Amino acid sequence: MSPTEPAPTVVLCAYTERRWDDLVAGLSSLRAQTVRPGEIILVVDHNPELERRAAAEFPDVLVVPNAGRRGLSGARNTAIELAKGEVVAFLDDDAVPEPDWLEQLLAGYRDPRVLAVGGSARPVWPDGERSPLLPAGGDGTGELDWVVGCTYTGQPTSETPVRNLMGCNMSFRREAFQLAGLFTEDLGRVGRTPLGCEETELCIRLHQASPGSVVLFRPEAVVRHRVTPDRLTWGYLRRRGWGEGVSKALVSRSVGADAALATERDYLSRVIPAALLRELGRLLRGRGSGALGVLALCLVVGSTAAGYARGKLSRRRLKLGAPPKLVHGPIHVATVDINRMPAQLPVPARAVGHYRAAQVLVRDGDRTLDVVLLPVRRGVVRLDLLGFGTPAAPAPKPDFERPLISVVIPTAHRKQQAVASVRAALAAGYPRLEILVVDNLPDGEPWLREEVEALGARYLVEPRKGVSVARNTGARESKGEFIAFVDENIRVEPGWFDAVAEEFVADPQVGCVTSMVLPASLETDAEVLFERLKGYSQHVRRQRLDRETVREDPLYPLSLARYGPGSCTTWRRSTFESLGGYDPLLGAGTPAMAGEDLDLFVRLARADGTVVYTPHAVARHTHRADWLELREQMRGYGVGLTAMLLLSVLRRPIGVFSILRRIPRGAARLAARTPELPLSDRAARSRLRQLRRDERSGMLSGPVALAKAWRRYRFGARSGHR
To answer: Which Pfam families match (predicted)?
Structure first.
């Protein structure tokens, strides 16, 4: 892991005070790790007394209640929503990690394809000796040790990719949950009920959502897992096998039997027969342990098979885990700087209702550290548990000659917002700016020209409709070596131009720089739903994107849209002009309605260009607050996507095969971005389904819209208005 990335988050989930001593031991070991976690989150599963005790005893730990369904999966999902680390590691409340446990897990992420890393779990027996109910080979590892949550015979003994990880010792990149969703709350242990397979199902979904990704097993990352006496009985072996079989049946019905049972088939055909032969040999030699071993193997395998058969007959369907949800309802938007960060952030009262959460941008001066979603309780947000610690001495600002940057702001229906965008650019503190406002819907009123020129910006008129034409006009009239395209509904924050210019000056190969774009407000349901469905980039790591660095991404170059919208990007003039600018057939104001920014990204990728995403340049986007406007916007996105894809094929017919190859994976990612909303909120779920229908309806209209845009553009050219 890079030293600039946020330190990892470690999650523990607890439900009973009977494991208090184990919990204390685990937390003590985490504090002594060779690599310290950035934060520790303890989720208490519907036990208020345990929650109060833990909050009082562990002041350095974020103790929160399970906000989801009762059970381990719901508790884990609660922690994922709060975690700020780029890696989230999970540890059971009865497991104690070795001192280098976290260091060993993080070492597995050296390969960018690795999205999850897990380790081994070694049993701690009640009396210090292995139970005769769980047979073992000469190395001391048993074939049935999975029954008590430990590493078992048949698992790899060296670092290797695997299908899934063990729940008591696993970690994921935060990106994995964006791709595959959360843990399925229909699976997972509930109290002492021995169900499971939630981590198996999630890992399989991760493989399906990102076929090039790797789930890595590193046996060097070790935890000591305590085995309680109640798990060493014939009754528990039977119940655990039954629960495993039922869970495997549910998983196979959701993700397919081939994926769900591939490892198990090898285990049953190779590992179990070898174990039976060994135990039968012991029995024939007169060793009593052989009889117990044979009985245990038959009981567990038989119970698992019976549970699987019962699960296959069930009509129950899993509700697959959704991506991390953005809290439904108004969300306070704030920015804090760790150099002057209070312990608590007061949240203003609303005239109607109250805030349930706050989206907080955490900065260290002019550098972005993280974006976190925190609960609001009694009108405040606790910031003292974020875990950033005392800030280091501020790094000196890069010393370079600031180039001239031309800022092009097209405007049509929201001209007051365009004026606000000009003011924000001027307030960003950059010494060499040229600002051009392109009026794409002139109405004869002089007020816009007067306000723009009073601010020291240039006012241009482009009567031909379309944001692409307006941007191209502004670029043609500008003088800067670099051109920043900022839409009327976007306000850049102080330091934005410095962060962008720094990237261009440092690397002459960079053709485009994108930035972090956060919502200006999340007050209405429409704003919240848009942020969840189509919210712009919130990655907190700088990324350099070219053909080499993202060659494993199955959606490249379409995936470039994840790193910021074209409505807030900066281009090197030579690169922009070599690509021919924005295509006038696409974008707002044309029948195609959208797609112009992704089209330009795709053309840059095909020209082997380079994009840099910097989280240190932050801008705020004003989302559609009105429900009907949001519906039209979602339809426009659908229209623009298919129009852009069709135009791309018309330019380069051979590209149709590349597009067809990406459709299944793109559909999987689109499905994975569906927000999880409370089942009881029927109105919210209905609105969500409506937005998806609007988007699909727009996609069907894309080809016709592109034809209309072409006719209008061609007619305008013949009329002399091109």
So the answer is: Glyco_tranf_2_3, Glycos_transf_2
